[in-house]
Fold:
Amino acid sequence: MSNVVVTIAGGSVATTVVVLSVKTWWKGNRELKSLVPYAGGLVTGSSWTLCAGGVLGAIAVQGAEMSNKVGEKAINLATGKQGPTALNQGDLGTLTYGGACVVLIGTIVGFIALKAAGKADKKRMLGGVLAGITLCATAGFSSAMQWVPDLYNTGGTWLTDALNGTWSL
Structure:
């Protein structure tokens, strides 16, 4: 997703989603399990930024560009200021082929979970996806999420070894 530039306005939209999610959690029972829908969406969205050239990567690009447009319009309407101001681009890294397989498996499981989720959890999941795909295009957030490609690539190695019968503890 290296060709996507996120503006401060787009980053503001994604940051607002993060703040609203944390606020909801903070005002609730503050159990870690209630963060799972949002965190799962965040990791899912982040992983889609690694899928350049595929449908998931195209969705990530469109989501980041949508955040830019919504943010720029909102800031202009609210403050009268024109933008955009581009943020430094981030690069989350690359996936191995096995890692890409795990991303696809995770995406399918995520869609099944989304379909089964209640209305509030659906909003949290989709908000996490939007925040993940938008913020991972920025240098600051992508550096904090460098563990995401490692997670998927390690899972891909494990899956390959397990299916080849060479996996061991």
About this structure: Residues 55-79 form the longest helix (25 residues). Residues 8-159 form one domain.
